[in-house]
């Protein structure tokens, strides 16, 4: 589960490490650079509910493997991009395949396991996705310095192909899956989810979470590539090592969930994330790095708690519920890339921080008034 999460997110945010280079190479604006990140995120948002419905009819493992194979194609095509616009097109195609991995994997875990095992496996999956988010940025940043970013994307495509072969060999076939090819039934389930408090609250919270993460880790690169820091792509890639904290923190969050429940855990995690964002305003580079570490740790705990909140409380149409969650989650990320670009262009990093804090306050309100206070044992 951890490695599936890693392969799923290896490509999603990799471009963040080379944004300053792309602005120079393609004579692009900050908003255009942000939307290269947002293109993948937007495609994930659009496709998440539909691939969940298709998976309910077809199966789990075949979808995960097929999505990984498809993901390798646009990843290789990015290397041929003649303009920032074409790069956005290939990035969008990357995003079309990602829900076939993410949404279906969450449904697979919910079907094949019960009780404590669901929460633990979900935390390993989230840890793997955190590792993939770090590895994509880290590898591409250093590959650019060694080979150039175009050759770097060929390497990333080869890694994705290897991931597809690995999942084909190692992931056990579904035992509990029951096909539901009835489209009318899927539409009825969709209608039920749209008025389900658990699902709606998780979607809104997820939107705020990824808005903050994409907005922060996209435009902090432009901030640190500018004076007085002037970091290279390799140095920017190293900054993303703070992501590795999430690999450690996310499994530990299951202990917090069992003891305090999802609602309390999320509230505390959002406050921690807000403190981290504020810390990035300090001048020394080490202070910015600490701020990013604190901010991302809060986000990872929130994400793990929110996914577990759906897995525990939603019993019918799990993959569709997961798809709706990811639709809200990545729609928030798209807005973060777009509004973050506009804000950064107008007021640089300091104004971007206040935008992120505003969204995190919304997340705090949603967690406080929207999440049903589940019992600690159930959580």
Main sheet specs: none
Q: Pairing-aware structural class of the strands and helices?
A: mainly alpha
Q: List the uncertain runs.
A: 375-379
> Assembly state here?
single chain
Distance from N terminus to C terminus (CA atoms, Å) equals 21 Å
Proportion of beta-strand residues: under 5%
From N to C, what is the helix and strand string? HHHHHHHHHHHHHH
Provide mean pLDDT, rounded: 85
Distinct helical segment count: 14
Helical content stands at over 70%
Indicate the radius of gyration in whole angstroms.
19 Å
From the spread of the alpha carbons, the general shape counts as globular
Number of strands: 0
Mind explaining what this structure looks like?
By secondary structure, the chain is mainly α. 82% of the residues lie in helices and 0% in strands. The protein has 14 helices and no strands. The longest helix has 52 residues, at 318-369. The radius of gyration is 19 Å and the shape is globular. The two termini are 21 Å apart.
């Amino acid at each position: 589960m951890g490695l599936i999460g890693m392969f799923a997110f290896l490509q999603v945010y990799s471009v963040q490490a080379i944004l300053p280079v792309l602005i120079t190479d393609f004579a692009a604006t900050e908003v255009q650079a942000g939307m290269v990140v947002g293109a993948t995120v937007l495609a994930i948002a659009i496709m998440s509910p539909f691939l969940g419905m298709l998976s309910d009819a077809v199966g789990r493992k075949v979808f995960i493997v097929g999505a990984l194979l498809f993901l390798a194609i646009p990843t290789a095509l990015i290397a041929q991009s003649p303009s920032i616009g074409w790069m956005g097109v290939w990035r969008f195609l990357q995003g079309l395949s990602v829900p076939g991995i993410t949404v279906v994997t969450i449904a697979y875990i919910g079907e094949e396991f019960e009780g404590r095992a669901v929460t633990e496996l979900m935390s390993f999956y989230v840890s793997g996705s955190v590792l993939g988010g770090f590895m994509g940025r880290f590898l591409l940043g250093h590959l650019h310095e060694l080979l150039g970013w175009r050759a770097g994307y060929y390497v990333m495509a080869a890694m994705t192909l290897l991931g597809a072969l690995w999942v084909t060999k190692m992931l056990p076939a579904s035992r509990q899956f029951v096909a539901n090819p009835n489209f009318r039934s899927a539409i009825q389930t969709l209608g039920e989810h749209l008025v389900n408090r658990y699902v709606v609250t998780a979607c809104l919270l997820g939107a705020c979470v990824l808005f903050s993460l994409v907005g922060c880790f996209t435009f902090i690169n432009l901030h640190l590539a500018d004076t007085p820091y002037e970091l290279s792509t390799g140095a920017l890639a190293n900054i993303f090592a703070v992501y590795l904290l999430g690999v450690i923190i996310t499994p530990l969050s299951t202990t917090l969930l069992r003891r305090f429940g999802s609602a309390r855990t999320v509230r505390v995690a959002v406050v921690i994330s807000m403190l981290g964002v504020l810390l990035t305003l300090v001048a020394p580079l080490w202070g910015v790095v600490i701020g990013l570490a604190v901010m991302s740790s809060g986000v990872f705990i929130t994400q793990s708690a929110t996914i577990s909140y759906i897995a525990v409380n939603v019993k019918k149409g799990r993959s569709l519920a997961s798809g709706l969650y990811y639709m809200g989650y990545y729609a928030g990320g798209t807005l973060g890339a777009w509004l973050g670009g506009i804000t950064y262009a107008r007021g640089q990093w300091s104004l971007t921080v206040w935008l992120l804090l505003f969204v995190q306050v919304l997340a705090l309100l949603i967690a406080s008034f929207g999440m049903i206070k589940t019992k600690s044992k159930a959580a």
